[in-house]
Design brief:
By secondary structure, the protein is α/β, with parallel strands linked by helices. The protein has 2 domains: 120 residues, Alpha-Beta Complex (Aspartate Aminotransferase, domain 1); 225 residues, Aspartate Aminotransferase, domain 2 (3-Layer(aba) Sandwich), CATH 3.40.640.10. Helix content is 34%, strand content 14%. It is built from 10 helices and 13 strands. The strands form 3 sheets. A 7-stranded mixed β-sheet has the order 2-8-7-6-5-3-4, sandwiched between helices. A 4-stranded antiparallel β-sheet has the order 9-10-13-12, covered by helices on one side. A two-stranded parallel ribbon has the order 1-11. Helix 4 links the parallel strand 3 and strand 4. The radius of gyration is 21 Å and the shape is globular. It starts with a strand and ends with a helix.
Length: 360
């Protein structure tokens, strides 16, 4: 099986797995300890958590704190609901973790439009009533990179909090400067699932969503997993050390993928995007059938309607595509462990299946 679904999740880095194993030990070793316990074993586990926190913090700007969570969804809920701001503005192509949470807080949430390339205008009107603005760094469906630094600066000048979903950009691009809160997910940067983080700028006050023991500085109660923390930290550290080589590798893969899918229509900006995301469409393509017939390639429909939600892609709709055109799109995601030969073989399989439909 050729894996080309890096936006859904990245493979676990071997180094991250190795960092996790000592903290999955049974009674014959102290790795099972609760990091919130005061004894020797507990203190060792707590130390491992703090090492991981520092490794994750290296992905962010200085001048903030890292709150470890169960993932980016929880982090974004903590940022949006915990801020106490009741009037919100979000981009039209945010992930459901932002859109649905924003609508929960503010049923009349202001939606910032995108253009046909999937980009928010840096000069977009931010409503005066807004107390919090959320714009993602990299879109999970089409890979577009938003002008978050400019938008964050404008929000700050208005006295508005700026939240950035950096799930798809963390460990690949520089952290969005100027944001007040940034959410990331371990399993999107070669770490384990079940853990993420919210970076909170110094001076930003939040109220907790989860109450109990007051762990995580009183903002998030619950026992942390030293194993998940260690894996997250190791993966973050790898992204810091391998960032340049990862980017060079992805650039080569992008150039190859564009050539292999010449004649397909690219969704989203060709320039302002993360190059590990190729979202393309082909007129008349039946993507559900394509996914069924390409059994040797793991990839996704470019439209959310084919990924279990039952709804057409709000992202592709925001670009101006019809629901019919949206259903002809596929998304290929690649990264650190993808080989050029993988792309060549995958493209051959996808093209062969498309030819059976008579659309190539």
């Amino acid at each position: 099986m050729i894996y080309l679904d890096y936006q859904a999740t990245t493979p676990l880095a071997p180094e991250a797995r190795a960092a996790m194993l000592p903290w999955l030990a049974g009674p014959e070793a102290p790795g099972f300890a609760n990091p919130h316990s005061p004894h020797k074993y507990g203190r060792a586990a707590a130390a491992a958590v703090e090492v991981a926190r520092a490794q994750v913090a290296a992905l962010f700007p200085a001048g903030g704190r890292v709150v470890l969570t169960s993932g980016a969804t929880e982090a974004l809920n903590l940022a949006i609901i915990g801020s106490g701001r009741k009037r919100l503005a979000v981009s039209a192509i945010e992930h459901a973790a932002v859109l649905d949470t924003a609508r929960f807080v503010d049923p009349d949430v202001a939606v910032l439009p995108v253009d046909g390339a999937g980009l928010v205008d840096p000069d977009v009107v931010i409503p005066d009533r807004a107390g919090l603005v959320a714009v993602m760094q990299v879109n999970n469906e089409i890979g577009t990179v938003q002008p978050v630094e400019v938008l964050a600066a404008r929000a700050r000048a208005m006295g508005v909090l700026f939240v950035c979903d950096a799930v798809q950009g963390a460990g690949k691009l520089a952290a969005p400067a100027g944001a007040d809160m940034i959410a990331v997910s371990s399993h999107k940067l070669y770490g384990p699932k079940g853990i993420g983080a919210l970076w909170v700028r110094d001076g930003v006050e939040l109220v907790p969503l989860i109450h109990g023991g007051g762990q995580e500085g009183g903002l998030r109660s619950g026992t942390l997993s030293p194993s998940l923390c260690a894996g997250f930290g190791a993966a973050a550290a790898l992204c810091t050390s391998l960032g340049a080589s990862d980017a060079q590798h992805v650039e080569k893969l992008w150039t190859l993928a564009r050539a292999l899918f010449e004649g397909w229509t690219l969704n989203g900006s060709a320039t302002e995007r993360w190059r590990g995301n190729l979202n393309v469409r082909l007129d008349g393509l039946d993507v559900a059938r394509l996914l069924s017939e390409c059994r040797t390639v793991a990839f996704s429909a470019g439209s959310a309607c084919a990924s279990g939600s039952g709804r057409p892609s709000h992202v592709l709709r925001a670009l101006g595509l019809s629901d019919r055109d949206s259903k002809t799109a596929i998304r290929l995601g690649f990264g650190r462990y993808t080989r050029e030969d993988d792309l060549v073989k995958a493209a051959a399989a996808i093209h062969a299946a498309a030819k059976l439909q008579g659309v190539l």
